[in-house]
Design a protein that fits this description.
- There is one protein chain.
- The protein is an alpha+beta fold.
- 47% of the residues lie in helices and 11% in strands.
- It has helices at residues 27-36, 56-62, 76-79, 104-117, 120-124, 127-144, 153-158, 160-170, 177-188, 194-217, 223-229, 239-269, 272-279, 285-295, 328-332, 335-338, 368-385, and strands at residues 18-19, 40-45, 48-53, 68-69, 150-152, 231-232, 235-236, 302-307, 311-313, 316-318, 323-326, 390-391, 413-415.
- A hairpin with a 2-residue loop joins strand 2 and strand 3.
- Helix 10 crosses helix 12, helix 12 (239-269) crosses helix 14 (285-295) and helix 12 (239-269) runs parallel beside helix 17 (368-385).
- The longest helix is centred in the middle third of the chain and has 31 residues, at 239-269.
- The structure holds progesterone (STR).
- Progesterone (STR) binds next to helix 12.
């Protein structure tokens, strides 16, 4: 394990600190430990201490609290030079100026155009294209079966689909998708040495900056061009801001939806009674999607916000200058919010829509509707085309990628039936 960074000696960490496992060997166990550690829990991220919020109600409140900001300069451990670019998770926080890293009026300025482009109504216009990509990738699945009939649903279907959709939306040519997929995989993996991660982020910056310059010279009909031409409050976005938003959109748009689609398929295959209900039309795909979002969130931990003042949460105080993570997977399993059976996957659960997986407040996921459209097309199409779909290995053999913030499988081998 490449963990060069140790910000706090073990003795400095509270007894109740949950060490987040970079190898993600027991996600359910870790989710339960976080829940047991309290509403506000101390965690260790590769030697760096932070708080995390593990409950729905308190997370909701904190996500509306203007005393918590995204600006990394509000973080004591950063300002003191304790956390540096040698820390493998720094790229999750120090990601350039974009709607992901700025708050307040500036944040609205950076975000308005993107959220307007992604409303359910605007998305209806691209539904036919998403359907077409889906059908093409279903053909690809059929063709990719090995002699034993096994095919990796992730590599051939769940991964390329969101990349094509976000690529089309942002105007990224298909010839670049494999390169982007490869680099993001390395970006997220904790097995990637930090110098390599920093180098690939720099390469991505060059790629996106070139793309923005090209679109500035020749605007087309995509969101990147719209961001370049936008004048929010009479003030255009700078090149850096357009690049930042583009980076955030591509990274978020492709990585999280992979998890949503695969986690839904996995949940259904391991709960055949519920799959039967959906296929018989007794429950709808929306219910599957919402319950999957709650039960097995694509984002495990969202990094990070910083307190600009002391903030009291129950018996604990987040001190000014400390960092707060939002542990969405634990929040989805909150008993107060979802009942004593919160750990059960149940598409008929009354609270299935009352999850917080897309966040809350000003930074709430602008791509939420898009991901629902994608999953709402991909899942029924997959099960209609391959009604006999089943896992090619026992469910316990599915492993997670060594990614600390995302809930992402290494592969999902299936038999199409
Ligand atoms: C990856 C690196 C980068 O260049 C830009 C961003 C900003 C948006 C981030 C993204 C990051 C990582 C994955 C995130 C995404 C926003 C939503 C997505 C955190 C840091 C989620 O997992 C929810």
């Amino acid at each position: 394990m490449n963990c060069p960074h140790t910000a706090a000696a073990p003795a400095d960490r509270g007894a109740g600190t949950v060490v987040i496992d970079p190898m993600v060997q027991d996600l359910d166990g870790e989710t339960a430990r976080l829940r047991d550690a309290g509403v506000l829990a101390r965690i260790d991220l590769l030697g760096v201490p932070a708080w995390t919020v593990t409950r729905h109600a308190e997370a909701r409140q904190l996500l509306l609290d203007p005393r918590l900001v995204k600006d990394i300069d509000a973080w004591d451990l950063w300002r003191s030079g304790t956390v540096t670019h040698a820390w493998p998770l720094i790229g999750m926080i120090d990601a350039g100026r974009s709607m992901f890293t700025v708050d307040g009026a500036e944040h609205r300025r950076l975000r308005t155009k993107t959220s307007q482009a992604l409303t359910p109504r605007r998305l209806e216009a691209i539904r036919p294209e998403i359907e077409k990509f889906t059908q093409e990738l279903l053909d690809a699945l059929d063709a990719a079966q090995g002699d034993d009939g096994v095919v990796d649903l992730k590599a051939v279907f769940a991964q390329p689909l969101p990349m094509r959709v976000v690529g089309m939306l942002m105007g990224v040519d298909e010839s670049q998708h494999a390169m982007l997929t490869r680099r993001y995989k390395a970006f997220f993996s904790m097995l990637t040495p930090q110098d390599e991660r920093l180098a690939l982020l720099a390469e991505l910056d060059v790629f996106y900056t070139d793309l923005v310059r090209e679109k500035t010279a020749r605007p087309t009909d995509d969101l990147t061009s719209a961001l370049i031409l936008a004048e929010e409050g009479g003030e255009p976005l700078t090149e850096e801001e357009v690049v930042g938003n583009l980076k955030a959109m591509v990274a978020a748009g492709h990585e999280t939806t992979i998890g949503l689609v695969l986690n839904a398929v996995r949940a259904l295959l391991s709960h055949p009674d519920q799959l039967r209900k959906v296929l018989a039309g007794e429950a709808d795909w929306d219910a599957v999607i919402e319950e999957t979002l709650r039960w097995d969130t694509p984002t495990t931990h969202l990094l990070m916000r910083f307190a600009t003042e002391d903030i009291t949460v129950g018996d604990e105080v987040i001190r000014k200058g400390e960092g707060l993570v939002v542990s969405y997977r634990a929040i989805g399993r909150d008993i107060e919010q979802h009942g004593a059976d919160a750990d059960a996957f149940d598409i008929t659960r009354p609270t299935r829509n009352r999850h917080m997986t897309f966040g809350h407040g000003p930074h709430i996921c602008p791509g939420a509707a898009l991901s629902r459209v994608e999953a709402g097309i991909a899942l029924p199409a997959l099960f209609t085309r391959f009604p006999g779909l089943r896992l090619a290995v026992p469910d316990e053999e599915i492993t997670k990628l060594p990614v600390m913030t995302q809930n992402d499988m290494a592969a999902f081998p299936v038999l199409l039936g």
